From TrEMBL:
<protein>
    <submittedName>
        <fullName>Uncharacterized protein</fullName>
    </submittedName>
</protein>
<feature type="region of interest" description="Disordered">
    <location>
        <begin position="304"/>
        <end position="337"/>
    </location>
</feature>
<keyword id="KW-0732">Signal</keyword>
<feature type="compositionally biased region" description="Low complexity">
    <location>
        <begin position="308"/>
        <end position="332"/>
    </location>
</feature>
<feature type="signal peptide">
    <location>
        <begin position="1"/>
        <end position="16"/>
    </location>
</feature>
<keyword id="KW-0812">Transmembrane</keyword>
<feature type="transmembrane region" description="Helical">
    <location>
        <begin position="347"/>
        <end position="365"/>
    </location>
</feature>
<keyword id="KW-1133">Transmembrane helix</keyword>
<keyword id="KW-0472">Membrane</keyword>
Length: 366
């Protein structure tokens, strides 16, 4: 709560708008944004900086606060993401949350984005140092999961991006051996729910499709504000009485019912790119991020076994690759790369209308 003195100080500084914004923590949130459940069994009750480093920790509390204060999930011992989704553990850039530490020298580039609806981190690095085997194109983690209690089970996330530590319900993390992208949905309105803005059913299209942003950051560290992207797979089609209409893309999926019957859902053609990449502003660059603890001081086992690029766990963070689980035609790497480099809206639209024609049917949101 703001003290009277602090409020008086803010009043005196009324011309310094940044001070006012920084000083005001958001206290009410739209429905579906703030997590109200219990914490995962291994997690501290609240995000906590400065906890003891514990490289055998099973804690699963992620925090994403700043370009150098964040966590991601990775396997407890070397294993592909696709096999360890339910029991991955938290690795953080700083000692916090009773979690494991990401050693210095692991991360080679980060773009941290703050928007009105989410906080997003795009990162590059040698994630074999946190037990992701070389060549594992990884997969997607979220609070839903096959058991309804999250992938990993008991995984929780917080951010202080709204002015104080808050537990958020919806998030998505794509991670591979060399790249990750992580979004926590911190807001909602009647157009965008937190669940749709952190939509978790597009695990084969990769970071650049699901979380548009600046992917040309390997080797640099930046922290920016950015406009809000459309929710993953949403494409605006028209505006009716001032209300935007969207078509949505659903990933192709073939499954088997308990009676053995095979079924297929989703679209046959994957759009080549998100509708647009939101522009960013107020970027601050940093030369590196560090916690002072190098890899060789942590006493952890070292790079895991290398695995073939096609793990069957989905294309995950690094973009498409052929997997056995989908009949969809996948966008190529160069298409995804083009999106990161800022394809003009018109070009994407042309591609998209071709896609609609091919689909012959799309879901409309009223
Ligand atoms: C923690 O994660 C579990 C599993 O996803 C979820 O059921 C619970 O609501 C979360 N609690 C908080 C406070 O985030
Ligand atoms: C490290 O984490 C493991 C697993 O969560 C726990 O059993 C152990 O007590 C922790 N060690 C310390 C020193 O906290
Ligand atoms: C959020 O966390 C960062 C990094 O730990 C810290 O520097 C900053 O003061 C925190 N902001 C708020 C509003 O608590
Ligand atoms: C919800 O927020 C988005 C992004 O700022 C905006 O474009 C949209 O108009 C908002 N919807 C409503 C109903 O205010
Ligand atoms: C990121 O940069 C590092 C250091 O130059 C390099 O080893 C790594 O291969 C790059 N990652 C990607 C995905 O290009």
């Amino acid at each position: 709560m703001l003290s009277a003195l602090f409020i008086a100080t803010l009043g005196a500084l009324a011309s310094a708008t940044e001070v006012q914004i920084v000083g005001r923590a958001q206290t009410s949130f739209p429905p579906g944004v703030i997590a109200t459940g219990t914490m995962g069994p291994n997690n501290p009750p609240e995000p906590t900086l400065g906890t003891a480093i514990n490289q055998t920790s099973m804690a699963r509390l992620l925090t994403a606060n700043t370009v150098d204060d964040w966590c991601i999930f990775a396997p407890p011992t070397p294993e592909v993401i696709g096999n360890s989704e339910t029991y991955e553990v938290a690795y953080c850039t700083k000692p916090r949350n009773n979690a494991r530490l990401i050693p210095d020298g692991t991360i080679s580039g980060v773009s941290f984005l703050k928007t009105d609806f989410y906080v997003q981190i795009i990162g590059f690095g040698d994630l074999t140092k946190i037990n992701i085997p070389y060549g594992d194109y990884g997969g997607e983690l979220d609070p839903h999961g096959a058991y309804g209690s999250g992938n990993p089970i008991g995984g929780n996330v917080t951010s202080n991006i709204t002015g104080s530590d808050q537990h958020f319900t919806e998030w998505m993390l794509y991670v591979s051996y060399q790249q990750f992208c992580f979004r926590i949905c911190t807001n909602a309105n009647s157009t965008y729910s937190a669940e749709y803005m952190c939509w978790h059913e597009l695990d084969e299209v990769g970071c650049q499709f699901v979380m548009p942003g600046n992917y040309n950051i390997n080797g640099t560290f930046e922290s920016c504000e950015a406009d809000v992207a459309y929710p993953p797979g949403w494409y605006p089609t028209a505006t009716v009485n001032g209300v935007p209409q969207f078509s949505t893309f659903a990933q192709r999926y073939t499954g088997t019912l308990s009676n053995g019957q095979v079924y297929t859902v989703g679209d046959t053609v994957t759009p080549p790119a998100p509708y647009f990449t939101p522009s960013s502003s107020n970027c601050v660059k940093a030369s590196t991020i560090a916690n002072g603890v190098p890899y060789n001081q942590l006493g952890i086992s070292g790079s895991g076994p290398s695995v073939p690029a096609q793990t069957g766990s989905g294309a995950g963070a690094s973009g498409p690759s052929a997997t056995g689980s989908s009949g969809a035609s996948q966008p190529t790497k160069s298409n995804n790369g083009a999106a990161a480099q800022g394809v003009k809206t018109e070009m994407v639209l042309v591609g998209f209308w071709a896609v609609i024609a091919a689909l012959g049917g799309i879901v409309m949101f009223a």
